[in-house]
Every structure is written in structure tokens, then in C-alpha cells.
Amino acid sequence: MAKIVIIDTIIEKELLKKKLEIQTFFLCEPEAEMPPYQHGTICMKILEARTEDYEIINIVILENEQKKVSIERLVEALELCYNFEPDIISMSIGTTCLKDYQKLSGVIQALNEKGIILIAAPDNSCKITWPAAMDSVIGVTCDWKERLKPGEIRTLEENIFGLDLVANANLEFKNEPVAFGQSNSYAVPIVVSLLNTCINKGIRGKERILTEIQNSFGTALAYEQLKYPEKTKLEIFDEPVVLCQGLHEEEFVPFIEWLWEEHMIQAVGITDDLQTDDFTLLARNRIGTDIESFVSTCLQKDLVLFSLNQNQSRLKWDVLIQGEEKQVVIKSAEEEIYVQTKDDQQWLGTLVNNLVEMLTE
């Protein structure tokens, strides 16, 4: 019998079809008058309809499904899992703040080393999300384009979002007062139900489970995200963009860390081929051809750094250069905060002053 931890809202046991003993641990106090069929309950109803022979532990970290939760509370919930020694940790929750990687990575790695399967959903807005994008976590998205039948699961080809599986969450439940529908978070219990079956058969470990799913259900699918929002060239970036000429890509990292630590400005660097686990740096060749749209819509950030050291033709520089005043921080040699060479000692202070003024006004 697999032991499953569900980190979510409270599971309303009285709304389940099966009589089930659920251990519940509260890291917050649920609201007294919240509507029925909270998120955790719906996930549990999907799970109970698709598998059996399991034990459930519910860690409540949300007062209700409309509330947001701090990254510290999510880390606390994951640390609590040490004591339970579960087989599966199910999280229909995550953070799009790229800097939260550092807060999550330690506890995620420790749980993974204990052989625990972690499964998580990305944000429905199509932004890169931790922990779903982490290598040691099974990231699950729903089948937004309806390529699969309801309840079907497939493995995904490698993608920059770090997602491993896709499931059609457009399920029908008769005689229920709420509609479930497509959502990344509802794809998670569909996959958890399959993982429960795998574990009860003695199949464990992320790679072995993914291999079993691919062998059972067929060829991996390409990841097809929601269509990028249509934007004009002048609107393509919502955040400031810095074009750094003469600044080596490796020098992005200390600058990005300094911006966050001193000014809480979250920046990402787009490079030719360097990429870091926490996505401080992203490689162009992994993003794909539509770099502008990806950066604009799929990353939660305040600032984008582009290197102009080489391969400048890979980007539509006119898009960057023609932006509105607040969208482009550096655009020509005449700009006062233009980075001309890495030997220029004046650029950093002027650049930061301008960035802080724009991003905090």
C-alpha cells in the first residue's frame, strides 16, 4: 500500500465517496465559512475514482483555494514529510519566482535521496514553475490542446519547462455540483493515481516510472504550451531589457545575484549556450526560435539581460531597440547607461540607479 502526502487545502472527507481515514496536519487554519469542494477535495475525488490501495496524509497549507501561500510554508510542509516517509508527495502548487529555487532545492534533494517520488504542477499561466521544473520532480501539465482522451497520460519530450508528463484532465463526474475541467493542478491526481499503481507493483524511481509509462502508453509527445499572447513589437517585453555589449555571459551571475540581494530585482540572463539549474541563465538554443515571446510570457522576472558578444543575429534586435522608454534600458551608444566594455567602471552604478528607479516607482 502506497503512502501519499497531499499538500493542498483541507480534504473534506464527508464529500468523498469512499470511507477513508486521512491523517491531517495543519500549517494554517482553514477558514470557518469556506465553500465546499475545495481544491484538495477535488484532487482527492479524482484520485479515489482512479486507483485504490493507498494511505493519505493531508498537509494543509492553504486557508482556502483562493489564498496564496508563502514559499516558507511550502518548504515547511516538505520538511514535515521527512517524518512520514511517504512514497509519493503530491503538490498542485508551486512558485513562479525563480529565486525561490534556492529555498526549495535543499529539501527537494533530501526527499529525492530518500526515494520519495515528488510530483508537481506548473502555473496555469504558462510560466516556468518550481518545483515542477526541477530535475528530481515529476512535472505534470494538463492536455490543453485535447490531444488525448480524458484521463489519458503520455510522457513529454524534453522541454525547457522541465515537464515530464501530460494528462487530459477534462473528466466528467456525474451528480457532482462542481465542474472539474482542464487545469494543470487537476492533471496531478490523474498521474498520482497511476504512480500509486506503479508503486504497488514494485516500480519505483522517477526514471523507471517514466520508462514504464512510455512503454505502456506509447511515444512521447512534444510539449505544446498555450499560445503566446499576441503582442505588437512595441509591447513584446513588459519588463526592462538590458543589452550588455562586451560583458561576458559568466559575469551575468554575480550581477544578477547582487540585484536580488540588494534591491529585490529579479533578473534573468539570456546566453548563447550557458544555462544554470535555477534558470538565472537560460540558453537561447534551449528556448527555441521565438525567444522574445518566451521571455515575455514564460518567465517571472523584473529584468532581462541579453549578451551582445556574439551571434547577435539570433534575436530580432529591432524588437528590443524599438521598445517604449521603460522597456529598454540600454539601446544605443548614446544612452547614459550603455554597457560599452567590461572595463568601463562607470556603468554599474548608473545602471543600477536607473533600474531601481524604474522598478520601484
From TrEMBL:
Gene3D superfamilies: Peptidase S8/S53 domain. GO terms for biological process: proteolysis. Residues 54-332 form the Peptidase S8/S53 domain. GO terms for molecular function: serine-type endopeptidase activity. Pfam families: Peptidase_S8 (PF00082). InterPro entries: Peptidase_S8/S53_dom, Peptidase_S8/S53_dom_sf. This is Peptidase S8/S53 domain-containing protein. It comes from Anaerosacchariphilus polymeriproducens.
